[in-house]
Q: What sequence folds into this?
């Protein structure tokens, strides 16, 4: 309406000199007129010049007097025409502020005699203050003296009024042409696209951030499939894991997709605390300290501002990650190769989930199986063994792996076949135990596993590595307690002092692999392997203050937890 009025007016007149007057003449709100002017100006239908005017508006007090009359006038009316009224009586008739101001102003105006008794001095007065205020309300201009007196009584304040004067612009037309925002199928069929005027693209406009990248804890295992191992510039071996995870695009994610998703601001990822912790551990394990993640990314030829360093994690491998993509394992690799006797309680179905289908493994390395059988039955390499009948059927049984040490074992077996080279391996993945579920236990959880294989390693090296590792996580008070594992000697449980809980908390288990495990694999006698297995959940619960593991992992997880925990690198910065 205002738009038609403005364009219509300009069809016959040169100029609209004042948008304020135009609005009141045509019965529009000035605000509406201003909005239309801005929009028409944007499309150059009109040219608009700013007009600024100082104007006066009533204060709340001013508005009250404009409606009810000034206090002096109200007081004057309350004094009887004849005779007098006592001051106390008069006070009762009026509001306290009206009485107070009224007394002084009516006295000053010589309208009344103020004493203990109050009487009129004149019979007729005019409420000039009210009149002036009403005139200001109507937008009339007042003389300097009047303005000053109202200003002094704080009944008016100055306000800058903004409006426009308007003339035709270069694209002037009496009505606005509608610009098309989309090219539709109908436009093409009708052929009217040839005449259509299209709205220009605004390449600077930001799209709405997509709700994406929330990492569900259960998704983590599947992300394992999208584990990227990339050779970037300089032939560096780089692992990229836990990147932008668009659930529906997982299959097609590529390194470039992820980076471009970031550049085009397709939403910030929110991370599950377990994923944050996993990243943190990855960082600790892999980050060599020689090059930064940013350098890796820029060496890939892509430059962009990396606000969350861990958003896309590129690590130069210091430790190599072990392939942990097999949840199903044979008892042989999970237990026997680790010199774990077949009668060991952990091998009971109360502790381990055995598979019904397929219930047994298809193949095992026969030569090695013979050596393992021998070391269990009669020892060797200076050991007496367990002295029992080792049964192949037990070793064949399939199970859900109870620890990732099964994978370490496979890796060491493969390594022992090569001419000896020192190695560092790690993994972070899921394991399963047939345990009753409570606040701190689940039947499946995640293990961080690590090992260093070299000649001449000692228990001191193991303690040193673990101290270094945990102090980077902000856990610098560690204690080691002698423990027993069938596959390590010596073995140590790792405890960390938790400042918040004010107690020592067990965070992992470690040791040096026994000769009964390493020598049948074929390692030279002087090769030592220090190894550790840590829970991912335990430190996560401690660091995030989660006291029920079911709030962290499993079907009861509150998904908003991930949104509340943006990506982070604990204890590293
Ligand atoms: N496998 C052990 C566990 O599950 C951890 C461990 C790994 C201990 C390596 C020693 C050496 O608790």
A:
């Amino acid at each position: 309406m205002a738009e038609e009025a403005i364009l219509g007016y300009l069809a016959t007149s040169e100029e609209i000199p004042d948008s304020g007057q135009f609005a009141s003449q045509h019965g529009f709100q000035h605000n509406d007129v201003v909005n239309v002017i801005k929009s028409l100006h944007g499309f150059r239908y009109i040219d608009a010049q700013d007009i600024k005017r100082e104007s006066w508006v009533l204060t709340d007090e001013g508005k009250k007097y404009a409606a009810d009359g000034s206090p002096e006038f109200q007081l004057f009316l309350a004094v009887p025409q004849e005779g007098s009224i006592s001051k106390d009586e008069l006070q009762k008739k009026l509001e306290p502020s009206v009485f107070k101001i009224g007394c002084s102003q009516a006295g000053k105006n010589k309208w009344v005699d103020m004493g203990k008794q109050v009487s009129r001095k004149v019979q007729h007065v005019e409420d000039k203050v009210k009149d002036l205020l009403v005139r200001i309300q109507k937008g009339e201009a007042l003389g300097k003296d009047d303005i000053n007196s109202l200003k002094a009584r704080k009944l008016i304040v100055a306000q800058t009024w903004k409006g426009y004067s308007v003339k035709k612009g270069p694209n002037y037309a009496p009505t606005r042409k509608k610009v098309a925002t989309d090219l539709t199928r109908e436009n093409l069929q009708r052929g009217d696209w040839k005449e259509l005027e299209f709205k220009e693209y605004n390449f600077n406009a930001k799209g709405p951030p997509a709700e994406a990248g929330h990492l569900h804890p259960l998704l983590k295992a599947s992300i394992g499939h999208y584990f990227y191992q990339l050779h970037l510039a300089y032939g560096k071996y780089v692992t990229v894991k836990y990147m932008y995870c668009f659930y529906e695009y997982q299959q097609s994610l590529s390194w470039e997709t992820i980076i471009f998703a970031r550049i085009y601001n397709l939403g910030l990822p929110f991370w599950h605390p377990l994923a944050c912790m996993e990243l943190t551990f990855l960082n600790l394990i892999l980050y060599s300290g020689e090059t930064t993640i940013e350098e890796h990314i820029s060496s890939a030829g892509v430059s962009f501002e990396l606000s969350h360093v861990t958003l896309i994690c590129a690590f130069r491998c210091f430790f190599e990650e072990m392939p942990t993509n097999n949840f199903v394992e044979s008892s042989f690799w999970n237990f026997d190769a680790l010199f774990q006797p077949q009668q060991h309680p952990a091998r009971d179905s109360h502790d381990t989930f055995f598979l019904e289908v397929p219930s047994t493994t298809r193949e095992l390395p026969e030569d090695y199986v013979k050596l393992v059988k021998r070391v269990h039955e009669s020892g060797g390499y200076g050991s007496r063994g367990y002295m029992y009948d080792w049964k192949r059927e037990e070793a064949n049984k399939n199970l859900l792996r109870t620890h990732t040490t099964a994978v370490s074992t496979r890796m060491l077996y493969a390594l022992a076949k090569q001419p000896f080279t020192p190695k560092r391996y790690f993994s972070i993945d899921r394991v399963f135990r047939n345990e009753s579920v409570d606040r701190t236990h689940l039947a499946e959880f995640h293990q961080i596993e690590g090992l260093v294989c070299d000649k001449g390693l000692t228990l001191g090296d193991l303690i040193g590595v673990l101290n270094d590792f945990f102090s980077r996580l902000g856990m610098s008070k560690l204690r080691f307690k002698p423990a027993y594992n069938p596959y390590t000697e010596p073995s140590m449980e790792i405890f960390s002092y938790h400042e918040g809980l004010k107690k020592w908390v067990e965070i992992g288990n470690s040791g040096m692999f026994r000769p009964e495990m390493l020598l049948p694999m074929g390692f030279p006698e002087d090769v030592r392997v220090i190894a550790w297995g840590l829970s991912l959940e335990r430190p996560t619960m401690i660091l995030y203050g989660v006291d029920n593991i079911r709030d962290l992992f499993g079907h009861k997880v509150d998904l908003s937890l991930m949104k509340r925990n943006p990506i982070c690198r604990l204890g590293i910065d």
About this structure: The chain has three domains: 61-152, 224-318, 328-564. The longest strand covers residues 46-58.
